[in-house]
Amino acid sequence: MLRVLFTLLTGLWLALGIAGASAQEIPPPGPARELVIGTKQAAPFAIKGTDGVWTGISIDLWQRIADKLGVKYRLVEERTVEALIDGTASGKYDAAVAALTITGPRAEILDFSQPFYRTGLGIAVSLTEGSRWTVILRSMLSLGFLQAVGALIGLALLVGFLIWVFERGRNEHFGGARGIGASIWWSAEAMTQASTGVHTPITLAGRSLAILWMAVSIIAIAVFTAGVTSALTTSALQGIVTNVNDLASIRVGAISDSSSVDYLKTQRIKYRGYASAEDGLKALKAGEIDAFVYDKPLLAWIVLQHYSSSIQVLDIVFDPQNYGIGLPLGSPLRKNIDVALLDNVHSDWWKQTLFSYLGER
Q1: Signal peptide position in this chain (predicted)?
Q2: Radius of gyration of the chain from Cα atoms?
């Protein structure tokens, strides 16, 4: 009995000793090693200076987070967003800090921090005079304009034919093989109020139709003129794009394999793909496309830096998006990063940072 009791006590003592030793071997919270942070140039969120120093909205925010967490890190640049995402998903990077939008497909392979910036897609259009005349020309060749012109011509042809039917047997000017042409010509003159009065209908039916046609044509021409003037004025002042729906009828550019393309595909909007925003904006300036779609803050930054005199970013935001910090699935850093991130984005420092880079108050 004593032997059994001694054996049990000995086993309990050894177990406690092993547990204590194991507890002492558990490392303290937080990584002791240097973190590897992936990034990609996307001004004004991630900007690499000529001296190799990184700045920008996302980079400055990460520096604040790292200081709060007391961790060391080094930045590694990737050339594409896909490489940045794949590298983070595979564990090559401890975090991805850039202009990284939070999407469903990306959330399947990455964890994301709380959003630190909410925005959406924007549209850039050309400011050149040539493009404005192009806008007016396209408005005049649009389906709606051609339908209106076709309707007026159709009415003139119909009235001319009816005048010929009523007058051909009693009016020599509208009779014979050439009478139908004269009837249509008279109808066109009456519609435009340019009739000379030399050849007019003489039958009761013909004159009744003529009076009705003159009254109707005055209203039709007035409505048509007002509509065309309004459309051309709006196009000249506002440009070819006034809302997102206009993208379906113009030449649109976007960065290939970007969230902008995902939106355009969803809306069944045809587009031309470009390798970078710079390439797309150069094509826009050259008149190869009519509009370029990209994340609005990034688009506004590039236009402000290089194309302020030839391109403008419209005051339109669509397809809302959130920017966050990407992390490998199950990353132990996520909670601490979220806490530090939320502390910063609700501070005066964050307001000053957004103002310094984007002019946002």
Answers
A1: 1-23
A2: 36
Q: Give the residue among 153, 151, 116 at the shortest CA–CA distance from 340.
A: 116
* The residue to which tokens 């980079």 are assigned: 59
Q: Check whether residue 96 and residue 38 sit in a common domain.
A: yes
Beta bridge partners of 292: 124, 253
Name which of 122, 355, 349, 107 is nearest 255 in CA terms: 122
Report whether the peptide linkage leading into residue 44 is cis, meaning its omega lies within 30 degrees of zero: yes
Q: Are residues 209 and 224 in the same domain?
A: yes
pTM, to two decimals: 0.57
DSSP SS3 for 121: strand
Mean pLDDT, residues 119-129: 84
- The DSSP output letter for 28 is P
Strand partners, 322: 118
| DSSP reduced 3-state for 30 | coil
> What is the domain-level CATH number for residue 246?
3.40.190.10
Claim to verify: residue 179 and residue 96 sit in the same structural domain: no
Domain count, the chain: 3
Q: Which amino acid is at 361?
A: R
- pLDDT tens string 328-342: 999 999 999 999 999
Domain that holds residue 161: 136-238
Higher-pLDDT residue of 182 and 84 is 84
pLDDT digits 0-9 by tens, 4-31: 444 544 554 444 443 443 333 333 345 5
